[in-house]
Write a structure and sequence with these properties.
By secondary structure, the chain is of the alpha/beta class. 39% of the residues lie in helices and 19% in strands.
Amino acid sequence: MSEKILILGGAGFIGSSLALNLKQQYPDAHIICLDNLRRRGSELNLPRFKAANIDFIHGDIRSEADLDPAILAVDTIIDCSAEPSVLAGFSSPQYVLQTNLIGTMNILELARKLSARLLFLSTSRVYPIEPIKQLNLIETETRFQLAEKQPYPGISPQGISEEFPLTGARSLYGATKLASELLIEEYRHAYGLKAIINRCGVITGPWQMGKVDQGVFTFWMAAHYFKKSLRYIGYGGTGKQVRDLLHVNDLFNLVQYQLEHFAELDGDVLNVGGGLDVSLSLLETTQICAEITGHQIPIEGVLAEREGDVPLFITDACKMKEKTGWNPAYSARQTLLDIYQWIQQNESLLSGIL
């Protein structure tokens, strides 16, 4: 593959991981990463790009002038550029709306002008909050799990599928991503845009600058490594809330397949995640982090729930697996161990950030 690829949000966790993996797999590909470097730690990827012969442009998708088709003459656009925090929608809605909505408009215009194909990273947060909170759960010793009988279609013990209802509030972050999906579909119809949409669950792994509201598994491991305190927030304060997780290398394997089979997958809007087999509660995450690091840290239980939170989300990615043959290779423990080893190898670099 010797084409030109533009990765937006390219210095972020997912964007940089995809860029470096793509360059390693396809040395002749011309890869450009554009990023506004707003997130702390993203600047650490610039020396990695230079060493890998990846071009970097400091730019912002909110600015139409920064997406100049004369400069960004590419065949493929991979959009990883969102403000991905649900909590940010409650504290700084303007930035979320401008980045995730106006940014998408600018990206679509760039794709239209270049006749470039678009691989768009959406989110599982497009599924509304209240219906998820109304799911029937069973409480076990270490986690919540889905019951067989559920009040909605598109939900089974395997998780939430693409048939889950989309009616209801989903956070400003989720709303902007769903609106972006709809705009992409309009551009497909009106201009023949070639596009694939991945509704991603929790993506994690090395080089993620984890925070409590985005990148929780890296955040959890870093707190254990550096011996900082944590909190179980909401749902009894016992840490039984559950998410599935996907190693960023597993996401890359899927993206690689999609790029190589774009024509047959054009128009797809499918879930991507680790699924039930690669899921953890916070309590289970604590147990693994303590085992790997050898550190026991104080964790406070807080009864009040965080805005926009849900007790459980597990991605049912069966459709994607059936269509592509893709399956996650990393277990939850392997992923956490990989994060631990990355922190250990880069402790001095990361101590002020994580």
